[in-house]
Amino acid sequence: MKVFRKAEVEKILDRLSGDADVYVPMLRGPGSGFFSWQTYDEDFDDLVLDRLNVFLPPKQIIISPAEKTSFNTIGDSEPVNEKIIFGIRSCDIQGIAFLDEFFSAGGSGAELYKWRRDHTAIIANACYHPGSSCFCSSMGVDPLDPAGADVIIRDTGSTGYIWETRSPKGERLTEQIADLLEEKEVSLPDPLPFSLKVDLDGVMEKIGAMNDHPLWEKYSEACQRCALCTYDCPTCYCLDLQAAHWHEAGYEFSCLESCAYKNKVLSAGGVSSREAATERFRHRFLHKLHFYPQRYGKPLCAGCGRCIAICPSDAGITRIITEVREADLSSR
Prior knowledge:
about 30% helix, 3-stranded antiparallel β-sheet, 9-stranded mixed β-sheet, about 325 residues, alpha+beta, 12 strands, 2 domains
């Protein structure tokens, strides 16, 4: 098997950065996320390949939090650089897979999204030690075998990382760093069990009949409407889209939005379809656990645990799933 020493990580990132924008998990000041390796400042940043999940999910590499894209209908749209996401976990890859499904339906931004995805390579970091808020296995995600990765790296401890090629894109990346890899037999760590699990059996059908259940008011009263759960979620894809045209030219503007905000659900005339905070809180979970499964056959959740770790009101999705499973609807 191919292995590289941990001392070679920065050399590998430097090499890969020669032909692409490489994004890696970093601690940057008080925050963390996937940032360009070319912006790395050793006096301010820390590379954290051993961290399970950074605060900002890597979806923001493919769908920018806010961007203005100019175009000319006669010529081509703006060029897009090659990108590599290095050290991404299985849950975040699943989040990108959900975005692929959404944008495959077309609509504004779909063409640019597809171009970016076609020019993005994924180097996944397999998880052997899940955290206290991780529950990706309950969502059908395999932390040891990240689906859709072009390369998988596996942390073996003091002996370094295994480098495992999974696609033609991965083969090209492997060729770029071939001299930094060595053939060596090493042992893999034993995976630890998940401390957090949820049972989805029946939840996706049951929640659709709970529009007026008191649990929504119970949890929405404590909700701060900060929307961190949506911006921090690797699977949420609400966008505010605007455009302007002048003859053959113009621009499109898009930015991440949140169903937690009243303005997100305004219709013509400024009327809100979900005026009450309880309605907006409920809609988020209905979308993830009922509407999306109706269309695609699976819940819109990758089990990354960010909403559990960050919610100031303790209303993470696993708590809602458990409440739904335990709810008694016999008298309703």
